[in-house]
Amino acid sequence: MKNIKFLIIESNKEQQNYVIEKLKTNHYQNISLIDHPNELDQYSDEQIPDFMICNYKSDINYSINDVLEKYPIMSKVPCIIYSLQYDDIILKKLNSVNLVDFLPMNMSDFELEKAIQLGLMNNMSRTNLKNKFNDYILVRSGKEVKKIKLSEIMYIGVDGKYIELHTSDRRYFIRFTLSSILDKLPDNFVKIHKAYVINTDYLDTINIEDNTIRIGKENLPMSRSYKKELFDKYYVS
To answer: pTM for the complete prediction?
Structure first.
């Protein structure tokens, strides 16, 4: 991870050296530097850095917001912004920035490393989101691999070391855990019990007295803890 690409945008030579020193103290070496935002003209898609570290006012006439408006290619790059004016006035002006952290100009080694680690964790979270299933999954069925649309799955249950995917006309057994598949499913799939996940598009009724949920022709048990989650999310009295 120490081969992360950094781009520093800073016109003040002393501050340039200060930020570079902080990065090198934390053992980062892949560092590029530009004195003025206009130098971003040279950057292509292949040269996009992993992080930008910028003075909020990189130039008398340029704030980071101006930079990103002129160079939208950089708009998705995680930014660590610092400023001589270190207060909520500047922070509120950073709402259009892919902001990782806002630091004072005299940031410590720890503050800069903390900001980088926060950016890496956020990027991992976005990567995990990209790993979610889209419209369908592929499931082995006998000697074939069957394509199942997520919209066709009514609910999922646990059966020993397997889980069962239930559609309107059949069920599929796959060797997977309930929690692992739930992490990859869209938000309309909700856990109602330690052994059941439902597709709320098929939810018919909830029996409050016996804590069951009607899905198609099935009555499934619902745990009280998950009942609260479901009601907090969907219930309108």
So the answer is: 0.54
